[in-house]
Amino acid sequence: MIDNRLMMLSMIARHGTVTAAAESLRYSPSTVSHQIKQLATELGVTLLEQRGRNIRLTPAAHSLLGHFDVMAAEWERALADIDAYVTTVTGSITLCAFSTAASILLPQTMRALNTEFPHLATQTIEAEPSECYDLLLSGEVDLGIVAVTTETPTGADDRFTQKFLADDPLDLMVPLDHHLADRSSVSIADAKEETWILGRPGTTYHQLVVANCASAGFTPRIGHYANDWNTGTALVHDGFGVCVASRLSRSQDLHPVRRIPLSGEHAPTRHIAAVTRAGAESRPTIRFALELLTSETQKVMAQLGRDLG
Predict the structure, then answer these.
(1) DSSP letter at 240?
(2) Is 94 left (phi over 0), alpha (psi -120 to 50) or beta?
(3) Which tens digits make up the pLDDT trace of 83-130?
(4) Which ranges in 16-97 belong to alpha helices (H)?
(5) Are 113 and 289 in contact (CB under 8 A)?
(6) What are 195's strand-pairing partners?
(7) What distance in Å separates the CA atoms of residue 133 and residue 147, rounded to the nearest whole number?
(8) pTM for this one?
(9) Residues contacting 191, CB < 8 A, separation 6+
(10) Secondary structure letter of residue 181 according to DSSP
């Protein structure tokens, strides 16, 4: 119902280039460029300016996007109002989440949705947090579970409604015969002399651990790179170093290691939130999913804490 070219302009603002915006929307760059030029011609204003190899949005473009964000949120609220007159919920709902949350939280959420709304089709997409926001903005996804970072949109971003679900501590993973293995908790500085297994540079995992190590006064000696918790834990199991892994992950079930809670002010923690487009949180299916995710995530985290205790 809202001109799709405004979405293209919004994605250019989000990603900084036509190419990246086109990739996020699954269009060719030439298509996006043509559509934005056409929109600018119809409006009689310049929307993009070339600055060397880069482009920037003009003040007119920023003004237009401010109205677009309002229109998009009002459309979601209109859909929520219309839902009040629907006797049988049909259609579909698509959920996305980063890998750990996708495997633990989404299957049971979809089962509950299918029970509550038997005529509703459900779909899951596994995606990294930044991609979840793109999928939400493009309309491909209705609700996302993300790990909030300094690089993701803030809670003050008018395009989204974010609901805090839980804090997900990162625990230290060491071999079963490691000298720290009998400790009930450790600080991250207790492992400063160890060889570390971290996510690759540029990943949220890498940045989070390195930042917390730095705040604890040391730079980790990195021996191996592994983005996946299971890969990292497998390397720990075979004595190649230590790593930290999400409390929500169950990687030690595949590769027996000792999981030790990290304590102190420098203990890394991921903040997990559910995100929808602004206004969509009032729709019955999304409201149901949000309430279920809130309660189930807290139950899961509480049980995992008891298991470690």
Answers:
(1) S
(2) beta
(3) 989 889 999 999 999 888 888 899 999 999 999 999 999 999 999 888
(4) 18-25, 29-43, 59-83
(5) yes
(6) 221
(7) 11
(8) 0.84
(9) 172, 174, 180, 242
(10) T
137-175 per-position pLDDT tens digit:
989 999 999 988 777 888 788 899 999 999 999 999 999
Cα(298)–Cα(309) distance, integer angstroms: 16
- Surface-to-core class of residue 292, CB atoms within 10 Å of its CB (0-12 exposed, 13-18 middle, 19+ buried): middle
**What are the pLDDT digits (tens) for 24-48?**
898 999 999 999 999 999 999 999 9
**Residue 96 β-bridge partners:** 125, 144
Give whole-number Cα distances, 4 to 10, 68, 290, in Å. 10, 10, 28
Question: Binning pLDDT at 50, 70 and 90, where does residue 249 land?
Answer: confident
- In Å, what is the CA distance from 90 to each residue of 75, 122, 138, 248? 19, 10, 21, 32
Which two three-digit tokens encode residue 189?
Answer: 């500085």
